Amino acid sequence: MPGDSATTPSSGGRWATGWRVLAFWVATMVVLVIASLVTSHVSAAWRMVVTGAVAGLATLLLTLPFLRWEGLRAAQVGLVPERGSLARFGAGVVLGVGMAAAHVGLMLAFAPVRLVAGEPVDVSFMLLTGFGLLLLAAREEIAFRAYPLRALDARYGVATALAGTAAMFCVEHILGGSSWDNAVFGSIPGALVFGMAALASRGLALPLGLHTAWNCVDWATGGKGDDGLWRRVVEPGREQAGAVLGLASFGLVMAAAFVLLWWIGRRARRQVAAVASRSALEADALPG
């Protein structure tokens, strides 16, 4: 879902943009809490589907007035599908599966962790869980990598945009019950990678595919509890080593993905600049 190659910030000033982004972030968390309370009585898989759908739609609707206040369009922040969006989503899925598989492989190779078969899971439960993870990922991409990332990028630059949205992503996970270790060493690297994917592709399709695929493989291999296809079992007495090495492998994979996406984004920007330069030269060469 690539948007325009550049955004035009509003005339409200740097502080106005910062306060609007913070207000938007708080509002999205309120929406998420309400959606979670509404679905607290349903099963875990259905809870993901309903929470993702309700909170995602509400977050999308909430984005629209903030875009107007910021002087941005939906296409500029990746909310309008375009030709090539499906291909970019597919590329994100391939990248996400590869990253998650590398993470699990490194843990099995170097950490005191092994995979054991979980309880039998039927196909309908797998599909429902995958759909729920897709909706939750879509909600997070809209909440963090659409308006907030693009507004901060246009006003403050890439580094501040990535750092700011990563910090908000981390705090949301802490408030949602994640441990400090998982929030700081898990959520922040993930947010940086998803944010770089959004900026490199100038849209949400690539990070959405990446985010969804990562979550699905992580669920299947026991990273989100014991209801996946496998469970992660740590050798008795080596729980701390398992946690440290698991986070280390996660950080290594995320760092490699960030560098790759940064390189892809840099190359894409150079290609766009080259095309623009050629077009300008051709326009100058036309007879007056």
Helical fraction equals over 70%
Strand order of the largest sheet: 1-2
Oligomer description: single chain
Q: Helix/strand-derived class?
A: mainly alpha
What is the makeup of the main sheet? 2 strands, antiparallel
| Backbone CA Rg | 20 Å
Kindly state the mean pLDDT as a whole number?
A: 89
The helix count comes to 9
N-to-C order of helices and strands: HHHEHHHHHEH
* Content of β-strand: under 5%
Whole-Å distance between the termini?
Answer: 38 Å
Silhouette: globular
The stretches of 5 or more residues where confidence is low (pLDDT under 50) are 1-7
Characterise the protein shown here:
- This protein is mainly alpha-helical and 288 residues long.
- The protein has nine helices and two strands.
- It has a two-stranded antiparallel sheet with strand order 1-2.
- The chain is globular, with a radius of gyration of 20 Å.
- It starts with 13 loop residues before the first helix and ends with a helix.
- The model is unreliable at 1-7 (pLDDT under 50).
